[in-house]
Design a protein that fits this description.
328 residues; alpha/beta; 4-stranded antiparallel sheet; 12 strands
């Protein structure tokens, strides 16, 4: 990544709500981040924290209604996506900003052949290239053993790993500048997960594209992301360089996530989970949103919402007592 490069995409105080204005469901509540060309960042957190809604909002894919984009900006190459008309959005979606969705078995259309589904994006955005050959080249590029056979196959005729390769081929059909990978390895076994990680890393280097990785798999984050943002109840609670955050978290929630990760070496201690559940975005607690589950909770946490405190010049934490968070 070119550290001096202007952001490819910059999100400023994004707010995405569901429900009525009188009783809003704050799925995304004031998140800000940016991605530079060629950079990989990760959004990490439990299910229900708002990661996928944040990612889908980048190309305004969260339908309106039921969603309402009530505040903030999404600046893609300096243009606010939230102010674009449908024609401008169609030129971005799948072309400049592309997605790999979780669970390829349900994301691929079961009634169309793989080749047809990949060809759709090519015909829409790259009408100057021979479609059939490009489909085969893409399948070969992502490591399909027999591209011609895979192109003729229906999704159910492929294994989970091959389905995911087909999804990646679809996402890369137009050589996007930003690839959003939403839980790209959730439905795959560990061996195939490692193959997908290596594949994404190789393709990123070849295309020079940026990647936004959405995951709860901290091992995946450690292997691919340069920076990470930890999300809880619609807000970012910690952000910084991946290595620094994983080595010395400065928010109790991040520490709890790390304690829940199985380790191959060391003791036989039982894994420590995080008590309770992520609050429903329509029923958020007062004060710090994590305080009902936090082992470090004090009276101040119950009544005063913490602001983002600067840990150093590369990272911050949304915790009153971030300096007292013990090592993982």
């Amino acid at each position: 990544m070119n550290k001096a490069a202007s952001p490819l995409i910059e999100v400023q105080d994004l707010q995405v709500h569901f429900g009525s204005p009188a009783q809003p469901v704050r799925a995304v509540d004031g998140v800000s981040f940016q991605i530079a060309p060629g950079e990989t960042i990760a959004l990490v957190g439990e299910s229900g924290c708002g990661k996928s809604v944040t990612a889908m909002a980048l190309a305004r894919l969260v339908p309106e209604p039921p969603a309402r984009y009530v505040g903030g900006q999404i600046l893609y190459q300096g243009r606010d996506v939230l102010q674009q008309d449908e024609d401008a959005l169609r030129a971005i979606r799948g072309n400049e900003i592309s997605y790999i969705f979780q669970d390829p078995g349900s994301s691929l259309n079961p009634v169309f052949r793989i080749g047809y589904q990949i060809a759709e994006a090519i015909e829409l955005h790259r009408s100057d290239v021979p479609t059939r050959q490009e489909v085969l080249d893409l399948l070969r590029w992502v490591g399909m053993p027999d591209p011609a056979r895979a192109a003729r196959a229906y999704p159910h005729e492929l294994s989970g790993g091959m389905q995911q390769r087909a999804m990646i081929a679809m996402a890369l059909a137009c050589h996007p500048r930003l690839l959003v990978a939403d839980e790209p390895t959730t439905a795959l076994d560990v061996t195939i997960q490692a193959q997908m990680l290596a594949l994404l890393t190789r393709l990123q280097a070849e295309l020079g594209m940026a990647i936004l990785l959405i995951t709860h798999n901290l091992g995946l984050v450690a292997g691919i992301a340069e920076r990470m943002h930890v999300m809880y109840a619609g807000q970012f609670v910690e952000a910084g360089p991946t290595e620094a955050v994983l080595r010395a978290p400065r928010h109790p929630y991040t520490r709890g996530l790390l304690h829940a990760v199985p380790r191959l070496e060391g003791t036989r201690e039982r894994l420590t989970g995080i008590d309770g559940m992520v609050p429903h975005p329509a029923r958020l607690p007062g004060g710090c949103r994590f305080h009902p589950r936090c082992p470090m909770c004090q009276t101040r946490c119950e009544v005063e919402a913490p602001s983002a405190a600067e840990v150093d010049d590369t990272r911050w934490s949304r915790c009153h007592f971030w300096s007292e968070v013990p090592p993982p």
